[in-house]
Amino acid sequence: MVQAKAWILARHFDGFPKDSDFQLKEEELPEPKDGEVLLEAVFLSVDPHMRPFSRVRMKEGDVMIGTQVANVIQSSKSLRPIVITAFVNQYEVTDEMLNTNETSINSK
Q: Which residues pair with 98 in a beta bridge?
């Protein structure tokens, strides 16, 4: 089992976001099932579109959206490092087909 961290939208913010607008939540992830992969975030992106998106499409208590560069930690297939659009978590278990907005990158 992996201890993961996720940024939670504690409250919708006006003006410049404050630390109190977010909460860092820890959770234990299950082992990936057949057809899933375990991803580890290497870089997290904070982008201007997150402000209007969070106001319109997110409820307080939701995991913040964002983009991450992630390494494949565990998989039943041999996968290269990937760039994936996903929820902003330190670790993520997701479908092995990676049907999100993924882009493979060369691992050199």
A: none
pLDDT tens digit sequence for 13-68:
888 889 999 999 999 988 888 878 888 888 888 888 888 888 889 999 999 888 78
Q: Which of 79, 86, 88 is nearest to 107 (CA)?
A: 79
Mind listing the domains of the chain with CATH numbers?
Answer: 2-104 (3.90.180.10)
Q: Which residues of 24-36 are buried (b: 16+ CB within 10 A; e: fewer)?
A: eeeeeeeebeeeb
| Contact between 51 and 29 (Cβ < 8 Å) | no
How many whole angstroms separate alpha carbon 88 and alpha carbon 58? Answer: 14
**Contact call for residues 28 and 56 (beta carbons, < 8 A):** no
